[in-house]
Design a protein that fits this description.
With 161 residues, this protein is of the alpha+beta class. It is built from four helices and seven strands. The chain has a seven-stranded mixed sheet with strand order 1-2-3-4-5-7-6. It starts with a strand and ends with a strand.
Amino acid sequence: MTIKTIRYATQKDAKSIFAMTQAAYAGYRALLPYSSVWQETPEDVADEMRLGPVLLFLQEDRLIGSIRCHIKYEQDLSRFLYIHRLAVLPDYRRQGIGRTLMEASETIAKSLSLAEICLEVRAAQPDNQQFYLKLGYRVGAISLYLPDGSPRAYWMSKNII
């Protein structure tokens, strides 16, 4: 029997999260040349962990997925949960791990009485857009533009309460 665990990350996990994220995103380097993931360091991960919970998905004690969550504020001071860097190692994709981490983030948002979850998805990743649409997220405004003026990323959101 394979033991699968979801747990909150601690500062001790920052280097492992960094390494796993780099491995998970490596296949997207040509597709996402402007992503900040390529400049990220283990120290950046540790700093980001102070902004909100990071969930880890482990299989037999091996880190194979993670999701980072931050509480952010709108201009009207309403709060929402921002999802950042959902990552699953390539050999473990399409096994429900991403969905499980997203559902766990919804549980966090509900426990914090947050009515909405928001994230950004790259325009160059239509498969990721479809993944979030299937989970009930809706596409919103363009969040980032490429130098040529075309969309680089879109906001997606889901009301959960």
